[in-house]
Amino acid sequence: MAAERQDALREFVAVTGADEDRARFFLESAGWDLQIALASFYEDGGDEDIVTISQATPSSVSRGTAPSDNRVTSFRDLIHDQDEEEEEEEGQRFYAGGSERSGQQIVGPPRKKSPNELVDDLFKGAKEHGAVAVERVTKSPGETSKPRPFAGGGYRLGAAPEEESAYVAGERRRHSGQDVHVVLKLWKSGFSLDNGELRSYQDPSNAQFLESIRRGEVPAELRRLAHGGQVNLDMEDHRDEDFVKPKGAFKAFTGEGQKLGSTAPQVLNTSSPAQQAENEAKASSSVSIDESQPTTNIQIRLADGGRLVQKFNHSHRISDIRLFIVDARPAMAATSFVLMTTFPNKELADESQTLKEANLLNAVIVQRLT
């Protein structure tokens, strides 16, 4: 019996060229029936994927434990490393029973791509469909991307004095659409359009947008912005940066407002400059000054924008200043007004006080119409 098995083993090795260990494996699996073992060997593709690899080769793969200068292995062993790399993308593989040549293989769920891999796919897809990489150009703050020519109307001046000016209408746009320039910024955790908010890569509502970019197409939401015009889409790579919302550009107020009235409304003065000077001189002479008593100069800012400076005694009262104003501006006699101090603004309600009592020595008094 042993001799018959040894003869079958030698014949199997002679026919297939396999080593004795592998020949013994097939013969034992076939109950030492040579014909069945050979059929199993060829069904397994053993005669096609046999290759001899030297252990001295750096890329050789060793599965056995017995030392030898040459050994026999299959192409399945050579692509083992490649299968392991594919498993990372496809999902982790599990084997239920047996070995890697027998048993049930179970593949786990696919591994999710990292943001960097997703950004790589987007750029790769865009390049495959004609996108061109360009250098980023730094623009000055006031520079626009493309100058727009004036397209409105205007007046054509006459060539001669007797020739009238004529209005010339501007050219109409060829189409109702408008060209749109959009910058797609791909960040570490999402993407943004121009200076908009961050949109997550994982949000299902953004899946169609990203898929259109990967296929080299302009997303539908950008086409709607153009209203039939051309969409120019730039992609910027910020995959290693966290999203930073840009500061809003300063926008000047363009609305309407109301002009507030001044503290001292303008009073119409019908007097001529000569008449006004005469009235001021008359008013100054009407103020009785006692030179033997202390004096002070009071500056008066009138409601009509004029200014008067008059000398008073410390004993003069605030009412005397009112009479002086009426004499210098007769039109003020029929006008209601109050006298106020500056810094702080305070109405001089008690006009019976003397200038010294009211602390108005060398002061500035403002006339305010009521």
UniProtKB/TrEMBL annotation:
Its main location: cytoplasm. One of its GO terms (molecular function) is ubiquitin binding. Residues 291-368 form the UBX domain. Residues 54-73, 80-116, 138-157, 261-294 are annotated as: Disordered. Keywords: Cytoplasm, Cytoskeleton, Golgi apparatus, Lipid-binding, Nucleus. The keyword Nucleus applies. GO terms for biological process: autophagosome assembly; establishment of mitotic spindle orientation; Golgi organization; membrane fusion; negative regulation of protein localization to centrosome; nuclear membrane reassembly; positive regulation of mitotic centrosome separation; proteasome-mediated ubiquitin-dependent protein catabolic process. PROSITE patterns: SEP (PS51399), UBX (PS50033). It comes from the Eukaryota. InterPro entries: NSFL1C_SEP_dom_sf (IPR036241), SEP_domain (IPR012989), UBA-like_sf (IPR009060), Ubiquitin-like_domsf (IPR029071), UBX_dom (IPR001012). One of its GO terms (cellular component) is VCP-NSFL1C complex. This is NSFL1 cofactor p47. The gene is NSFL1C.
